[in-house]
């Protein structure tokens, strides 16, 4: 309502925030929250130099909502992390730790002016990564262990059936042991681990271990395929486990793997998530022999909408190459006089 705004303007901000401490610990002016990215945009009155092509959704909403609707969009940088939430404990209160994105619209004379809640609206959004169209090579690793006072060795070879898995999909782990030594393998441990790296802070590792009593006698071989299925339902009691950022009243799942083009880039902040399968052999009076197999856990890329506007060749290939890390948020703001 232009009469309600008078000489004020309407601004929209996009904020990417990283909360690394519980909200109830924010005392004495010390906040466990860091803004990784803030971008502001003047939505009303619209600036001529800021006008960009409209999406089909924006065109339809403009026709439906009339002259008091004003479109806008943001561009999210590639180095920003995806939306990730750390699973809170049963006694935790307040906002959970993690990375979240928020779009906020407010009316004020300047963008830096302190605003009242009644003059602003907030919308929580998610930034997601989809699985690449071409997965990597099949993970396979092998190791040989020699023992003291023995010229024979123990050989362990492990592999996965593929590198990329979707959420809820079982993982087949192929284990092959050739025991030419004089030692006896008492047990095999197969575990799925998630590595959570809070950049600039610390690293957490959570694992789900499966013990298999399997004796491998000297001068014998052993081969078996184990199946693991990483799901949130069997890990809801683990505080601090990384989950996909969830919206209000929506369930979620384990956090997807983070794909970063340059891991050494110090501008990459937030939470980085990776997965691996660890195979360990417990040897009698000889220590342990273990190998690790990294894999990728993600959501499949959704099918293209038939009525979506085609992109140019360069931008399309860029989105596919960066796994949808670089995209625009196209929204529409409606001004109404709220009493």
UniProtKB/TrEMBL annotation:
<keyword id="KW-0963">Cytoplasm</keyword>
<dbReference type="GO" id="GO:0007399">
    <property type="term" value="P:nervous system development"/>
</dbReference>
<dbReference type="Pfam" id="PF00339">
    <property type="entry name" value="Arrestin_N"/>
</dbReference>
<protein>
    <submittedName>
        <fullName>Arrestin, beta 2b</fullName>
    </submittedName>
</protein>
<dbReference type="InterPro" id="IPR014753">
    <property type="entry name" value="Arrestin_N"/>
</dbReference>
<feature type="domain" description="Arrestin C-terminal-like">
    <location>
        <begin position="150"/>
        <end position="302"/>
    </location>
</feature>
<dbReference type="GO" id="GO:0002031">
    <property type="term" value="P:G protein-coupled receptor internalization"/>
</dbReference>
<dbReference type="GO" id="GO:0031701">
    <property type="term" value="F:angiotensin receptor binding"/>
</dbReference>
<dbReference type="GO" id="GO:0005737">
    <property type="term" value="C:cytoplasm"/>
</dbReference>
<dbReference type="GO" id="GO:0001750">
    <property type="term" value="C:photoreceptor outer segment"/>
</dbReference>
<dbReference type="InterPro" id="IPR014756">
    <property type="entry name" value="Ig_E-set"/>
</dbReference>
<dbReference type="InterPro" id="IPR017864">
    <property type="entry name" value="Arrestin_CS"/>
</dbReference>
<dbReference type="InterPro" id="IPR000698">
    <property type="entry name" value="Arrestin"/>
</dbReference>
<dbReference type="InterPro" id="IPR011021">
    <property type="entry name" value="Arrestin-like_N"/>
</dbReference>
<dbReference type="InterPro" id="IPR011022">
    <property type="entry name" value="Arrestin_C-like"/>
</dbReference>
<comment type="similarity">
    <text>Belongs to the arrestin family.</text>
</comment>
<dbReference type="InterPro" id="IPR014752">
    <property type="entry name" value="Arrestin-like_C"/>
</dbReference>
<dbReference type="Pfam" id="PF02752">
    <property type="entry name" value="Arrestin_C"/>
</dbReference>
<dbReference type="GO" id="GO:0007165">
    <property type="term" value="P:signal transduction"/>
</dbReference>
<dbReference type="GO" id="GO:0070374">
    <property type="term" value="P:positive regulation of ERK1 and ERK2 cascade"/>
</dbReference>
